[in-house]
Amino acid sequence: MENRVVATQLDNNKNFIKSKLGDSGDVMYRDFTIPMFADKKALAVYIDGLVGAKEIDDILLRPLMSRKNENINLQDNNALDQLISKGVISKAVTVSKDFEKLLDSLLSGDTIVFIDTVNEAMIISTRGFQMRSIAEPSNEASIRGPKDSFIESIRANTALIRRRIRDYDLRFDSLKVGKRTKTDIALAYIDSIVNKDVLKEVNDRLNKIDIDAILDSSYIEELIEDSSFTLFPQMEVTERPDKACASILEGKIIIIVDNSPFVLMLPVVFWQFFQAADDYYEKFQIATFLRWLRLIALILSMTLSSIYVMLVSFHQEMLPTSLALKIAASREGVPFPSIMEALFMETMFELMREAGLRMPKPIGQAVGIVGALVVGEAAVSAGLVGPLLIIFVAGSAISSFAIPAYNTSYSLRLTRFIILIATGIFGILGFLGAGILITLHLLSLNSFGVQFLGALDPVTPRARKDSLFKAPLRNMNKRSPAFGPKDVNRQSKTSDKNETPKN
Q: Angle CA(70)–CA(78)–CA(124) in degrees, nearest 5?
């Protein structure tokens, strides 16, 4: 847009706005006069639906139109400032000549006021659009922790963080991304903890984005991640404010995107995808047990179907004789090799899971449960697959549900097919080879300069206190070194045992 400034004639300003926004039915123009400003004519422009009607009446029109006994000398250099201080009750008022800034504010829900013969316009905060109320997280359930979640309003989300972190060093850096959507984005971090090199890298990547639209935080995730060709996520996603605040306190950066209830947390290490919010609300022994259980679930979700194929087709000698005979008897009459069986059942299960996800919630649950039972039983009865395979596929699917991060479970589901195909072709060599290649791939990944397998690579005493093991809270004195925080001290050193004060 050309560098247009505010004109002194109201009609010129009105016509320019119409030339930019067209004759849209939601753009409202309200003419009125301001008695205390020498009965000057004024024009208020706002977008219906983005502003509150009560705000327009109470903080703008009524104060400016009703005060008739006060007069402001138009010859004063600060005449407009006097008008704002005496006639506008809004919580935020700014003045600008730049039409680009005025239109951006208008499309964000503010009201623009032009005054005849004045070459500046007032930007008055009147945002009052409808939004979803704060509710319980839908994807990250917690038994003991807080029950609130982020919503689609960026200001509501920053307030949820402010309520929990009352640190003077908490910062929210604002910027707009998207040439057409001009989506508001906020970077949240604690200035005295965050790694400044990581912060600079994040800002550089965000400023390089040149795209028409940002409609969700997933757009930002894909545009700034280190590698777009890996199956594994390089940023953590959450809708829980407590989890986001915990990440900020560890020295991470939070990216909040307007119109998205999910925030991005970065940098990230692989093991954090297997930590749940409840781990920090339960005793350390329980949290450690659950983390190892999830690690077992990780291995089983990727390998169970492949182990079935490997043992049945290539390495029957690894099975006890009685079990091998039972498997052979159960597969009698099955016309397909084990790899075809496994691929068929895995594909059917993924189809049922996707169908259940896309259908209305009550119907989707029924489809998932009934479909799995019916298809599994029918496949065995028809002699298409062996009954033991159903157990392995079900175990693999259930294990993937135990992963707290849903985006990681997607990665594991795809990885399962890679290992399965490699095992079906090369047997145990394919099984081991695929596992080694995936591990090497993970070792090669970085998340904003941080090793993806950090906190355990290299292993440090500080990292061991909150990785696959969780130490008692009183012993977690230092922050993880993986993210390079400036302030590594979380708390002062305390005794392992609380001492009873002596009288």
A: 80
Phi, psi of 141 (to 5 degrees): -70, 150
Nearby residues of 32 by Cβ (< 8 Å), 6 or more positions away:
41, 42, 44, 61, 64, 65
Any idea which residue has 């500080």 for tokens? 462
- Label residue 503 by pLDDT band (50, 70, 90): very low
Report the distance separating Cα 125 and Cα 99, nearest Å: 17
Matching residue, tokens 């209305």? 360
pTM of the model: 0.85
Find out whether 176 and 185 touch, Cβ atoms under 8 Å: yes
pLDDT in tens, 458-489: 555 555 567 778 888 888 888 877 788 888 88
The bridge status of strand 93-96 relative to strand 40-47 is unpaired
- Beta strand ranges found along 204-305 (DSSP E): 236-238, 253-257, 263-266
Q: How far apart are CA 475 and CA 468, in angstroms?
A: 16
Single-letter code of the amino acid located at 120: E
> What are the residue boundaries of the structural domains of the chain, listed by start?
10-124, 154-268, 284-450
Residues 6+ apart with CB under 8 A from 126: 46, 51, 52, 55, 56, 59, 60, 90, 109, 110, 111
Residues 6+ apart with CB under 8 A from 473: 284
Burial of 199-208, coded b for 16+ CB within 10 Å and e otherwise, reads bebbeeebee
Distance of CA 183 to the CA centre of its chain: 15
Other CB atoms closer than 10 Å to residue 212's CB: what's the count?
8
Spatial contact of 72 and 54, defined as CB atoms under 8 Å apart: no
Rounded to whole angstroms, what are the CA distances from 330 to 299, 320, 327, 343, 386? Answer: 26, 15, 5, 18, 6
Half-sphere exposure (Cβ direction) of 99: Cα atoms closer than 13 Å? 19
Listed residue (256, 244, 167, 161) closest to 216, CA to CA: 256
Phi and psi at residue 458, in whole multiples of 5°? Answer: -80, 160
